[in-house]
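[SOLVED] Need 3D model of a two-part complex

Original post:
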Amino acid sequence: MWNYTDKVKEHFFNPKNSGVLDSANAVGEVGSITCGDALRLMLKVDPDTQIIQDAKFQTFGCGSAIASSSALTEMIIGKTVDEALTLTNRDIAEYLGGLPPEKMHCSVMGAEALRAAIANYKGEAWEDDHEEGELVCKCFGIDAAMIERAVTVNGLTTLEEVTHYTKAGGSCQTCHEKIEEVLEEVLAKTGALKPAKKHTPGTVGLDAIKPLEPKAEPVTAPKLTNVQRMQAIMSAIEEMRPQIQRDGGDVELVDIDGKDIYVRLSGACSGCSQSAGTMMGVQMKLVEKLGEFVRVKPASLMPAHVG
Amino acid sequence: MSQGIYLDNNATTRVDPEVLQEMLPLFTEHFGNPSSMHGFGAAVGGKIEWARKQVQALLGAAHDSEIVFTSGGTESDNTAILSALEAYPKKREIVTSVVEHPGVLALCEYLEKKRGYKFHRIPVDNRGNLDMEAYRAALSDQVAIVSIMWANNETGTIFPVEELARMAKEVGALFHTDAVQSVGKIPMKLADSAIDMLSLSGHKLHAPKGIGALYVKRGLRYRPMLRGGHQERSRRAGTENAPGIVGLGAAAQLALVHMGDENTRVKALRDKLEQAILAAVPSCFVTGNPDNRLPNTCNIAFEYIEGEAILLLLNEAGIAASSGSACTSGSLEPSHVMRAMGVPYTAAHGATRFSLSRDTTEEEIDRVIAVVPGIIAKLRSLSPYWQQGADRPKEFAPVYS
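Solution:
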């Protein structure tokens, strides 16, 4: 059973503004082929003030699709057309107190129906430009289509790069096999087993794909001196300590060896089943702070120093 | 939820209280390892052999040593297929149907993609019956194993496994059947059968989850998937799940006792439910082959509405069922069984499975009959495909992404 919020349940069991709006002067009809859902959104817009006076919906879809539609109508009534256009699918999901990652596309369908309806009102042609695929990374809600685009556009060739650009696979790591499959497929298709030429991310209309840092290229990132870099790592770890200490553990920086950062977990952390998760958390934090990809490893894995 | 009406027995069943009673001593006084030399172990070993005989009886197998206990249906399916491929390394082809359980399909897809096996997927017609011509054409001396389910979990449609097994034999292929839905509901006599291997799962027949068995016909070339100890005559290493095995034995014994009830009273309740819903709700139909299916299963496709929404409203009414809708599965893929039968997606998404068991009562069925039409009407009032007030569908063609 999906873990729906109370707000989702409220909008599903007692949807607001469902049915046909006879006085509608704007209608948007969209569907998602992946899950077969479909939505018709009907608006009544005042031509003088551009205010959406009324909105109704009809939805063929699951609980969260119906709830997203219902929430959407509540959110846009009373707004002007231009105000409404600033709403994104994330606003719909937030209004509902969040949606399971697998169900985020329901909110996307809502946002698209709104754009389609407003285009209809303005007499414009509306074209759907988003595609969706199988959900790969459940932690961050990244689907196969998004990974494919990131790989193709940015010329990615490794799992680490995909994680770096899309976050996919950066948390629980259980989807790595699937990410590698997508990578293999794209690389086989483009024949680009050699690294494709690099693009500066964010300049190719990929609003959905953002690298963790606006400038993820190590070359273009402001170059830290070794001392600055070490200090940045130390302060990031200091920042994390209080949180880990609250759970009765502690973390200590042992050594920095290029991209490998060795730490020691102690107290309640040692031998705790969650310690791998804690390591991962430290790594995410460091990647974020440094703007480069680093690996956090337990001190026990440190290579023996020669000489 | 203990007061709820449970019609999702193809997903899993309640452990029978008698089964639980048989299991409990295995957690307390009879906790020994059956491999041990002392008395603690010997007592458990005896119980396991008793359980093996109960499963043998349920399957009508010739020998109790043909039963290998596993962790469940998926392990049995994987073991059977991998065993055949390893035992006949020169044969590089596998035959299954398009409507198999993922326990078989996902493995075969993996073997096709990563190990280079040729994988024949036999299609079905719009009632879920196997395309016999395609099956015949796929068989050759290159086929290591055929794996085709006895009955489909979503529609209950039964495949002619005996005939399929004989045809496989003619070309020298092994025949395995995933029978997790049919064991305990259909009488079996594997001693007289051409079936080489059969998978069953405890939790589908009122035993607990995490226990199952693989039937392996005596004399069959077999290679274990798990290597390690000598347990199960070295065919499945690992210390025996003794409480689970004894539970499965007790459940097998009870299944034989109740098989008549499943095929008379339970079947009549299923038919009553189905006929009442078909009569009360417009634009819905039974999927699969109604004339040849499990006695407990009924799958109705409600057109123009979506299954998850149906299940949520049924759940509010205290009724548990299941759906072929994309949205109820983590993968978001619509049911491959519905798609294979060519059910249009506006109906496939509304496909709802009611699966009964010997625990189901007539009062419960009457309650479901009373509730379902209202739920369907409520959701159709929200659907863009449905003509309000006219009780019929209308034209609707959205832009698809």
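Edit: DSSP finds ten helices and eight strands in chain A.
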